[in-house]
Amino acid sequence: MCATLTTLKLDLGENSIGVNGAKYLGERIVKCVTLTSLNLDINSNSIGDNGVMYLGEGIVKCVSLTSLSLNLSYNSIGENGAKYLGEEIAKCVTLTSLNLNLIYNSIGENGAKYFGEGISKCAALTSLSLNLRRNTISENGKIIAA
């Protein structure tokens, strides 16, 4: 029970939580209804596309969230995972600050495109930091947020 929690910083990096762990985490985050700031580090946990989907479904239900920092590096997230993440983040209408680390996830050109389309819908966003190194993104996969 976290009825009054507004800030949560959780480091679960390198713990092999996998898809089920990400699903469980997404289901529990949703219960933090007063959360305004979430800093989640789950690097190197092999959550894959489905894990990102479950996590995103939980995060989007935190309706008061204004600041989100996610370290999802080294998690085997591909094109579909990037698409899910972009779609869910786009639904976070109160989000003003986003810090996202997706190093070494093979999101590729299409994943970068889908992710960029999702983020471009974040109308309240005033601060954005993206780390997309080592994701096999060519010039055609440029992230363009208009």
Structure description:
It is a single chain. The protein is an alpha/beta fold. The chain has a single domain, classed as Alpha-Beta Horseshoe (Leucine-rich repeat, LRR (right-handed beta-alpha superhelix)), CATH 3.80.10. It has 4 helices and 5 strands, in the order βαβαβαβαβ. Strands 1-2-3-4-5 form a 5-stranded parallel β-sheet, with no helix packed on it. The radius of gyration is 14 Å and the shape is globular.
Task: Kindly list the characteristics that best describe this protein.
146 residues, alpha/beta, Leucine-rich repeat, LRR (right-handed beta-alpha superhelix), 4 helices, 5 strands
Topology:
Layout: E1 7-11, H1 18-29, E2 37-41, H2 48-59, E3 67-71, H3 79-90, E4 97-101, H4 108-119, E5 127-131
Sheet-strand content, in percent, reads: 15-25%
Mean pLDDT score: 89
Q: Compute the gyration radius: what is it?
A: 14 Å
CATH architecture: Alpha-Beta Horseshoe
Indicate the percent of residues in helices.
Answer: 25-40%
Low-pLDDT parts are none
Helical/strand content category:
alpha/beta
Compact summary:
It contains four helices and five strands.
